[in-house]
Write a structure and sequence with these properties.
4 strands, about 160 residues, alpha+beta, 4-stranded antiparallel beta sheet, about 20% strand
Length: about 160
C-alpha cells in the first residue's frame, strides 16, 4: 500500500511539474528582424571565407553554412565553427545628435584575428533592450554577446 501511495505521489508531482512548464512563457529574444538579417548576412560572408575557406563564394557554396546559421545545423560546419570561432559580439553605437544606431558584428577567432561588419539602423530596428540601455544608462555604446543557434538553451 505504501508503494502504491509513493508511485501516485511521484506521478502527481510529475504532472504538476509538466503543467508548470507549459504555463511558463517562452523567454523573449532581444532581437529584431532587421538585426537578424544583418547577423545572418554578416556571419555567412565572414565565416564562409575564414572558417570554410571559400573565398568569393556563391550562395550555393554557402548553403550548408546558411542552413547551419538558421538553426538547421550541419555537424561538419558546426565543428569547424566551434574549433575556430572564440566569440561573436555585437556593439551598438548611438550619439545624442544622431537619430540612428551603428551596429557592428565582431567575430573573434581562436587565433586572435577579428572580422567585423557594420551597418546603420533606425532606432526602432535595434532590440528593445539595447534602446532601453541607451535611454536609462545614457551610454553611447551598448555591447551584447551573440550565441549560435546550436549554443542556445531550448526550453522543453
Amino acid at each position: 500500500m505504501l508503494a502504491v501511495a509513493a508511485v501516485l505521489g511521484v506521478l502527481l508531482a510529475l504532472l504538476l511539474y509538466r503543467r508548470s512548464l507549459a504555463a511558463r512563457p517562452e523567454p523573449a529574444r532581444d532581437t529584431t528582424p532587421a538585426l537578424d538579417r544583418f547577423l545572418a548576412d554578416s556571419l555567412e560572408n565572414e565565416l564562409a571565407e575564414s572558417v570554410l575557406g571559400i573565398a568569393g563564394s556563391t550562395p550555393e557554396e554557402r548553403r550548408k553554412l546558411a542552413r547551419t546559421l538558421a538553426d538547421e545545423p550541419d555537424a561538419d560546419v558546426v565543428g569547424k565553427i566551434e574549433e575556430m570561432v572564440k566569440a561573436v559580439e555585437l556593439e551598438f553605437v548611438r550619439y545624442a545628435h544622431e537619430a540612428d544606431v551603428a551596429a557592428t558584428v565582431r567575430v573573434r577567432y581562436e587565433d586572435g584575428k577579428t572580422g567585423t561588419s557594420t551597418r546603420r539602423f533606425a532606432l526602432d530596428d535595434v532590440p528593445a533592450g539595447v534602446r532601453a540601455d541607451f535611454e536609462q544608462k545614457g551610454s553611447t555604446r551598448v555591447f551584447r554577446t551573440w550565441a549560435f543557434p546550436w549554443q542556445r538553451v531550448h526550453a522543453l
